[in-house]
Amino acid sequence: NQAAQLITFTCGLHPSFSSSNVRIIPLSYPCAKIVATFPEGQSVHNLGWETLDREDGPLHVPSISITLFLALLSELSDYIISSSERNGGSTVLSSPPFPMTTTSIDSVDVTCLGDTDTASWSSVVFCTSVNLRWLSQLELPSDVGQILG
Fold first, then answer.
1. 113 CB contacts (<8 Å, ≥6 apart)?
2. I need a labelling partner for 54 at 20 to 30 A (CA). Which of 76, 91, 112, 137 fits?
């Protein structure tokens, strides 16, 4: 839930940012949800471990929700960096520690990973968490800093 709250908070700091197809509902039970809307329809996924069929069923890698979360994080990071460059911000923003696109991070293409490839998924989750740390350490936009200060 903390990762979802960080993304939601950061999106709120950048009201002109709009994700093309993905949004987060951070305060859901039992965990945050990620909603994807495409021309084919809408889907809702838990941001956390899911069971396959039953509550006591085996856990599986939540590959769809991780992939959607990565897409949103990538879009938001790109937006923040390009906004800073466009607005001539006083601080030059570095790129996230691990390069990412809407479908890959640190050159691992998540669309090619199977649910049982736990080593690769673990790497994806690690790299995503490091990039979330980078996001959490960015300076607040100047207009927000003036309001909060």
1. 63, 120, 121, 124
2. 112
